[in-house]
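Tokens help. One example:
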Amino acid sequence: MIEVMAIAGARNCDTQAVVGHEPAERSRVLTRHEKAKVQTTPTSLFKTPAEVVSCVDLSRAEKAAVLKQWEIDARLLQVASEEGMTGGEGSQLAEVKKAQKTLGVEDLEEDGAPNKTGP
């Protein structure tokens, strides 16, 4: 039996990963726990912001909340990068903004440059 690994966007979304690289026959629905986790840590289930938009298990409001958190995370990563405190990962801010535009999500209100407490 092939074991399906739950990684970025694997559930009723565009991407799937399977041990042994054989295609999965079906994906299962996101659990309540996974929905709650993705609200605070979007990259725990999704590789790209576009996967959030295409995920059928999330409502529009849930997708908007996930993308908002991802934007905040991306902005904070940029600040950390400017201060020389990153491990080499990219912030994906441009991809987040594109996904938000596709979904029709309003921009976060900004009172200046991003800082450690938010945009």
Q: What stands out?
A: Residues 60-82 form the longest helix (23 residues). The beta strands are 4-5, 17-18.
